[in-house]
Amino acid sequence: MSPRITVAVATRILRQLRRDPRTVALMLFVPCLLLTLLWWMFSDRPGVFDSLGGPLLALFPFTVMFLVTSVTTLSERSSGTLERLLAMPMGKLDFLLGYALAFGVVAVVQAALAVGLSVGPLGLDLAGSVATLGLVAVADALLGTALGLFVSAFARTEFQAVQFLPALVIPQLLLCGIFVPRDSLPGVLRGISNGLPMSYAVDAMQVVTATSEWTVDLTRDLLVVLGYAMGGLALGAATLRRRTA
Amino acid sequence: MNPAVRVDGLRVVRGGRVVLDGLDLQVRAGQVTGLLGPSGCGKSTLMRAIVGVQQLAAGRIDVLGAPAGSSANRQRIGYVTQSPSVYGNLTVVENLRFFGAVLGTPVADTIRSIDQVALGDCADQVVDSLSGGQRSRASLAVALLGTPAVLVLDEPTVGLDPVLRRDLWALFHTLAGQGAAVVVSSHVMDEAERCDRLLLMRTGEIVADDSPAHLLAATGAKDVEEAFLRIVEGSRSVTGAPT
Lengths: 245, 243
Fold this sequence. Notes:
The structure holds 2 protein chains of 2 kinds. By secondary structure, chain A is mainly alpha-helical. Chain A is built from 10 helices and no strands. The radius of gyration of chain A is 18 Å and the shape is globular. The mean pLDDT of chain A is 89. By secondary structure, chain B is α/β, with parallel strands linked by helices. Chain B is built from 8 helices and 11 strands. The longest helix of chain B has 16 residues. The interface between A and B is medium-sized, with 25 and 33 residues.
């Protein structure tokens, strides 16, 4: 592992993103537009946006980063640049951490915009601190990045990579407690929900919006989300093969 | 002198098909070795194996005295894949700086590599906006970073104009003259005469291993294409003394 190479990878990805302003705009502003839409939908029903806004702040960074990372890594795999890099003195971890670092930076910007908009103009009622909210959002983004890196190994084309979103993300969305409180789910589904990272991401957001203190639950939620992110990176590293068939 | 690349009993299976079966060969430093044969004959697979990115079913490959693909060799091999592997949405310079940072080569090396492939005029252009030939030269420039001791170039001159092709072959000879082992593949037989040594390949086997002049003399052919045909149709393999 070498910090020089990790930083080189991250800088390169950010430079590539700069050449693609449309993607950057979509990554940064679509969450803001969706939050505004949600606020508008419930503008006549006080309290609803306050309870839904937090969970959605967990959802956007996760989903967007999952998509962007899986597609970019896949194109790196199929264009031959990954093979070239792995034939060079490039550690697998350098590669993965470079991606995590670059998209982590994007996630910070995205979270700052979405959190700023929600707490400011949209008037989200937040009991905890804005910084904690931002921290949870960045952790969720890292989780999305890590899982996106992992699933890119199982897709041959961009078309397949995009299909992993409904396959892997929507079930988590349905079971994470936004639609039905997790305690009211049928037993088996509650068990499954307890094993899914998004449940903890959403729970963390609910804690931050509802209480001003840093609770044990919040620590647990963050650790689970980061643990899944680390696990995703480790699995991602296992899918990077220097020798292929 | 020890060979720069030594392949013993190489066997590669891809997608259930045996591509190479019990291949032996050696590549010397200071020479341009041409790997010629029709497409699908196993040239790229052999090159991937030498670089160390190909899974092997059996056999052993040593490059500069260390197993192919070992971490020591990752710094010492320049590799160009058939389709250009550079980032399309970065400029030529940005691509080279990035790969240079991975290899830990000085910035001056970036400029030297770009000049060697004659891409100075479009160094600040985004790769996607370049022609196919320019893109493959950008990819070649990456392989030249750090002046590697072994260069493995998979069809680096395809689609280039004759002047550039001549210049690149001159570059390959210069690099070989400086002591590098240069392996260049091509499916165009007329490039054969530019090599110091030829390995003719067909359906996963090396059917001839000789210098172009010896090969022509041994087969009585007037060009390498005809020599290839004579060997294949006469089903006899020509192996001359190492030059």
